[in-house]
Design brief:
Layout (H helix, E strand, L loop, with lengths): L23 H29 L5 H28 L2 H22 L4 H29 L5 H30 L1 H17 L12 H5 L16 H13 L2 H31 L5 H21 L7 H10 L3 H7 L4 H29 L5 H30 L1 H19 L12 H5 L1
């Protein structure tokens, strides 16, 4: 006797991914990253206030900032190797504690010992540099792959918000607390960065290795005797070379940072003063840049273009409108709007760039590759700042800005021609998943 087949039960749809704002592990990491970013931004601003209050001279400020940059550049390379060799959480802890220890030394040296401040600035820069690649790798350990773009957007949103509101708030606090107290407050922010983040094993976390298709779990990394520092650093370079899209994107980023950022940083105050006769253009343009970046961070948290790498590089190229607006006799509102566009573009690049690096790079080399990113892009920025002013003096503002704008447009366009740049992935499926 025939029986009526029992219909197969319909497969239930997988539950939607949990919001990162309800993930305590991510929130702790977000708080620590935000505190470190705010402390990093606040130090040069507070030292600038010290110059205004005549506690520090202009030459002294330059020396302190230069030694801080030197400490950062050395430590960012060392920190990348340490974060891949040891616990990323431990690297965050000790590097943040080093930066925290620098704060009271800076306060003690302010107005008394420039040598002490320079030594403290090296320590502060070293702490800042060592924690950056460790935080990047810790994000990949803590956040599931499908949530990382939103996580990176949330982090940049917090940093940009701090940059927007920070100057006014810090200036207000300075009227009541004094510069030395503000420096100690920076140390407290670093203590938050040191102790608040968790261990990087949040519930539901998925290893970067499986997301990248390597089939290797980060927790199963070989624990035998490891090679020396130099060998491991070179292994990080080798890993970066395995990803043509990374090298192309890094070249584009370096061009924009070295020429675009530097040119506008030097030329904007000059143009605001000489062409428009007011500091309003300088302040409004800087604010518009941050507001544009904030808007882009909100957009890119959910926007998934089919060709994400091309969209990111187009956003990076959009920075070229900033030097372009400065070289043309336009209404000041056009300059402000151009800076807003540049801010939008830079975050349309940054968030997918960080997310792709966390997805594609082998998990046991992620911190080293991230350290190369910071080392190259941040390392060449001071060179650009040092060369732009003499170039403007020798050739004039307009020719220099024209070259910088052309570089901002052309180098990202050339980077987009690299085959794997379209999706920021070795395979199209990985970039569009």
């Amino acid at each position: 006797m025939a029986t009526t087949p029992v219909p197969a039960a319909a497969k239930s749809a997988p539950p939607p991914p949990r919001s990162i704002l309800r993930d305590s592990a991510f929130l702790r990491l977000w708080a620590g990253t935000t505190a470190s970013g705010l402390a990093t931004w606040a130090l040069p601003f507070v030292l600038g206030l010290a110059v205004l209050h005549r506690d520090l001279g202009a030459a002294g400020l330059g020396l302190v900032l230069a030694t801080r940059t030197a400490g950062f550049l050395v430590a960012v390379a060392v920190g990348g190797v340490l974060a891949d060799r040891h616990s990323r959480r431990a690297v965050v802890l000790w590097s943040s504690l080093a930066a925290a220890a620098a704060a009271p030394l800076l306060a003690a040296g302010l107005g008394r010992s420039l040598a002490l401040m320079a030594v403290a600035a090296v320590l502060a820069g070293a702490g800042q540099g060592a924690c950056r690649p460790a935080f990047q790798a810790l994000t990949a350990e803590t956040v599931a792959p499908e949530c990382r773009q939103r996580a990176n957007a949330a982090m940049t949103l917090a940093v940009r918000s701090s940059t927007l509101a920070g100057p006014a708030l810090t200036s207000l606090l300075a009227a009541f607390l004094g510069t030395r107290t503000l420096l100690l407050g920076i140390g407290l922010l670093w203590l938050v960065a040191a102790f608040v983040p968790g261990r990087g094993v949040g519930a539901g976390a998925v290893t970067t290795a499986s997301a990248a298709g390597t089939g290797t779990d980060a927790s199963a990394a070989v624990t035998a005797a490891r090679p020396g520092f130099r060998t491991e650093f070179l292994d990080g370079i080798h890993e970066a070379r395995r990803h043509p899209w990374f090298l192309a994107g890094l070249a584009a980023l370096v061009a924009v940072v070295t020429l675009g950022y530097s040119a506008t940083g030097v030329a904007l105050p000059l143009v605001s003063r000489d062409r428009y006769g007011t500091a309003w253009v300088l302040g409004a343009s800087t604010t518009a840049y941050t507001v544009g970046a904030l808007g882009a961070a909100l957009l890119v948290a959910r926007w998934r273009p089919r060709s994400q790498g091309w969209a990111a590089l187009a956003g990076l190229a959009a920075y070229g409108v900033a030097p372009l607006s400065l070289m043309l006799p336009v209404h000041p509102a056009v300059v402000v709007a151009a800076y807003a566009v540049a801010g939008v573009g830079i975050e349309l690049f940054n968030v997918p760039w960080f997310t792709a690096t966390q997805r594609e790079v082998a998990p046991d080399k992620l911190a080293r590759v991230s350290s190369l990113d910071f080392l190259v892009s941040y390392g060449l920025a001071p060179a650009g700042l040092a060369l732009i002013a003499p170039a403007i003096g020798a050739f004039g503002v307009t020719p220099v800005l024209a070259v910088c704008a052309a570089a901002c447009f052309l180098v990202p366009a050339a980077a987009a021609l690299v085959p794997t740049a379209r999706h920021f992935a070795r395979t199209p499926s990985a970039g569009t998943s």
